Amino acid sequence: xxxxxxxxxxxxxxxxxxxxxxxxxxxxxxxxxxxxxxxxxxxxxxxxxxxxxxxxxxxxxxxxxxxxxxxxxxxxxxxxxxxxxxxxxxxxxxxxxxxxxxxxxxxxxxxxxxxxxxxxxxxxxxxxxxxxxxxxxxxxxxxxxxxxxxxxxxxxxxxxxxxxxxxxxxxxxxxxxxxxxxxxxxxxxxxxxxxxxxxxxxxxxxxxxxxxxxxxxxxxxxxxxxxxxxxxxxxxxxxxxxxxxxxxxxxxxxxxxxxxxxxxxxxxxxxxxxxxxxxxxxxxxxxxxxxxxxxxxxxxxxxxxxxxxxxxxxxxxxxxxxxxxxxxxxxxxxxxxxxxxxxxxxxxxxxxx
Length: 353
Known about the structure:
alpha+beta, 14 helices, about 25% helix, globular
């Protein structure tokens, strides 16, 4: 049965005192994507980027306002996303026509219908590879070994499609694709696990003790299930309308996260390959990452009042990487850092292969 995300995990993400977090940051290497001058932040990607980009440079945009005082800068309500950026929402949702989930939840023996609202973070990246699309074998990237290199702190194992949670659990049926089974179109099903880093596991233990009166305990890890596949040519062809680059799409690769144990409802990484408009021997790669956060995660803060160190810490600040308590280079660093590093890692992998 879907779980309402408790305050405990965000408490864990914020438990370490600032001084400890700063010491940890000094001891660990900074994410390459945060210090490299190869990454250029732009307000948005434009068709003209394809002709002016040089190999080695990565353009990055996530619609965040650098000087904004709004902690949710960069997030958009799911329904507003569908209306304002319909092509993007169709391509980056778990499937075209996806809507916010409604499911039955049983509390104290009483079954109730619950509609879940979502807020979406979207990041875009663009870079050029100094070889034609025909020289890029996307199938070489649609496997567990490649995923392990993209973010080494996340572990992966192959998942039998029949064991996918939306397939085997009737309470998770809202996450089933309506048109086909997950991983039933040439894709591979993967189960992944991210163990909270540094002092965060200790924070989870303490936070769970603070959650008196509930039998639900938050895990010391984030687990998720996804489908990784090379897009069929016919499906990939329509993505030129999304990238707005006027050359035929040569291929596409996507990873769709369709089940997460907490925090998120879904996620997607999408990469679209096209010949450069000014040089068919170069490939323009446009990448996207979308992460849908459960709205109630962002709205809860009253429970922190009893913990002085957390009194002024909002969940949205942690998730958006705006807190002094963010740490590491992966998910616990906040979704913008996670997305940025994922896109840069993919760019590096294509350039080196």
